[in-house]
Design a protein that fits this description.
By secondary structure, the protein is mostly helical. The N and C termini lie far apart (about 30 Å).
Length: about 70
């Protein structure tokens, strides 16, 4: 049985750009990519691309915390 992925919280928000921080805040509020795109006047595909980068940064932070 798979365990649910733990909720990620940014310990160091400086790792994300202000634009990425805003996207992450909206995602944490439960908005979808199209809803975030509408709120930020961006295409959903742009938001999806940025979310991928945000997730990669967060995974790197998680990996560094596990090593350190």
């Amino acid at each position: 049985m798979l365990k649910p992925e733990p909720q990620r919280h940014l310990k160091d928000p400086a790792a994300l750009t202000p634009y990425e921080q805003r996207i992450w805040e909206l995602r944490q509020q439960g908005l979808t990519n199209p809803e975030i795109g509408k709120a930020m006047n961006q295409l959903p595909a742009s938001i999806a691309s940025r979310m991928k980068a945000i997730k990669e940064k967060l995974e790197l932070q998680d990996a560094l915390r596990m090593v350190g």
